[in-house]
Amino acid sequence: MTGVVSTGAMVAKLLAVGGLVSSATYVHFRGRARHSFLRQLTDHSTFLAPVNALVYLFSAVPARPFLHLSDFPALAPLTAAWREIRDEALRLRDEARIRASEGYDDAGFNSFFRRGWRRFHLKWYGQPQPSARAHCPRTVAILESIPEVRAALFALLPAGGTLMEHRDPFAGSLRYHLGLATPNSDACWISVDGLRYSWRDGQAVLFDETYVHHAANETNTDRVILFCDVERPLKGRLPRTANRWLGDHLMRATRSRNERGEQVGAVNLAFGQLYKIRLLGKRLKAFSVPAYYAVKFALLAALVWLVLR
Fold it and tell me: What are the structural domains, with CATH classification, of the chain?
C-alpha cells in the first residue's frame, strides 16, 4: 500500500510539473515579443502560467495585444470625464503626491521607481484608499460607478523615462490607459507585443498587459495618465467567479499605500522582508555575474528537487 501511495504521489507531482512546464511554454510563445529563455525561466509569469492559461482558455475577448474600446461601453464615462479627472491628477502632481513608494512596500511597481515612474493609487481590488477619497473625490466617484474597473491609479512617466520589457503577472484583467496630460507626441509611446501606441490627451486605449510590453517618454514633457485594471470578460459563471475571487484575494494582497497609516497588502508586507535577500543578490551580482547566476539557478534546481523528491 505504501508503494502505491508513493507512486501516486510521484505521478501527481510529475503531472503538476508537466502542467507548469506546458502552460509556461504557452505563455512564453504567446505573441511575437518574448523574453529570453533565462529571463522567462524565473519570471513571475512562469509561476502564474497554470492560472493564466485557464484564463486565456475561457477568455471572451480576442487574443490580441490591443482591444476595441467600443466592446467595453462601461468604460465610456471615464473617457467622457477626462478633463475633470485630469484636473484632480494635476493637482496631485503639483502637490508632489504622485510619487514613488517611500519603502519596499509596492512589489508590483518597485522596479519602475528606479526609472523615475511615479504613481498615486486610487483603488486596488477593493475600496479606494482614504487619501484618494480625500484628494480626488470626483475620479473616485466615477471609478466606483464602474464595477468592471478593479484597480486604478494615476501614473507619471517623466521626461526621458523608460519602462523595461515585462509581462504583468495576472491575466484576469486588461489594462486601460487614459491620456490626461501627455506630450501628445509619437515620441512618448508604449509597445505591446511589438505594436506601438502613443498617448494623447483625452484619448484612451485598452490592451492585454500579459503580452510583453515596454514604454518610453523620449520628450522633455512628463506624461500623466489614468491607469486601470479592467476585469477580463470570461465565458461561464464559474470562470468569472473564480477570476473575481483571485482578484479579491491574490491581487488585493498587493495593495500599496499613498500615505502613512493606509492599508498595505500581505504580499507587499512580505516583499519588504524578502527584498533584503534581493539586496544581497544585487551585491553578489555587482561582485561577480557568473557567481550570481550560479547561485540563482542552483536555488531553482534545489526547489525543483524538493518538489519532486
Answer: 2-61+293-308 (no CATH), 66-267 (2.60.120.330)
